[in-house]
Predict the 3D structure of the following.
Amino acid sequence: MKNIILTGDRPTGRLHLGHLVGSLRERVKIQESGNYDEMYIEIADAQATTDNYGNIEKVKNNILEVALDYLSVGLDPKKVTIFIQSEVPELSDLTFYYMNLVTLARLERNPTVKEEIKLRGFNGSIPVGFATYPISQASDITAFNANIVPVGEDQLPMIEQTREIVRSFNRLYGETLVEPKAVLPQNERCKRLPGTDGNAKMSKSLGNCIYLSDTSEDVKKKVMSMYTDPNHVKVSDPGKVDGNPVFIYLEAFSEDHHFKEYFKDGEYKNLNELEDHYKKGGLGDVTVKKFLYYVIEETLKPIRERRAYYEKDIKGVYKMLFDGSDKARKTASETLHNVKKAMGLDYRNDEELLKEQMIKYNNK
Ligand code: TRP
């Protein structure tokens, strides 16, 4: 079987370190491994309208930001197809038929959607478009015959919903669609990066993000004012590293060579040694934060450089997106064709149907 990978993001803001840890790094790794046949990355603007229908401007403007972020982390349009969801209208057609296979009760059980409904204040008056976006996401995935979907944990209910749709469709209309599998980020401890304020999630609406496109000064300000262990008041106090965002970030981004470069006298050779000292007491937050700032800067420097390069050719970035969308559209229309054919909806090419009905009406 072919390995086809599909994943995507809603263009509602610039991408941040949480995205880098949660999915972008994984995508680049897969890309560099070359261990796949096709890889699609969708900028899910249509899905983003389901909770931003009053602010399309925001969605529209962030398509470019997300594309620049993709390119800046090293995703290569020669190796992956980056496309805009609304440029592939076949996806909506697929959604229409998949809707028959899902009940309202099933949609209401989706834990991620439930959470989002609470967050968006939709309680009691949920727009149908929003309620059904998991079905449209099943179209995103199946349209490309994707069998691998690298995502964060919060997307697992969407993949499960997709698998159910695939099974129902294949059972009813014959083997047509591919059942996908989710792939989660490998490092348990940084599956989800907390915000700089200690909140469980880095999220634009909480204002606790470090963006991939932040300047060095932004990063410094944000890191130096990060939430740490509130009981670590004096330098001599023993500190907690578990659940301490500064240490979670170090776990996510530091490598042994950073210790060698930064601690020139060999004070700490790796994260374990730094953590041990913090736990014992005698290591101040400022020292750790300065080191974290260094590590994040080392991570972001090449990303910033690539971004600056692509920012010089916005026209070229849009061309890349439209070329990708054309390619995606070709694949999606093949799938739509197969889906309609399996369902018996391809009247144009159905000679059998024409023959039968001509006989029925005595045509010669
Ligand atoms: N729902 C995803 C998010 O909010 C974005 C998305 C849309 C997606 N279509 C997808 C992710 C298909 C994976 C596969 O981040």
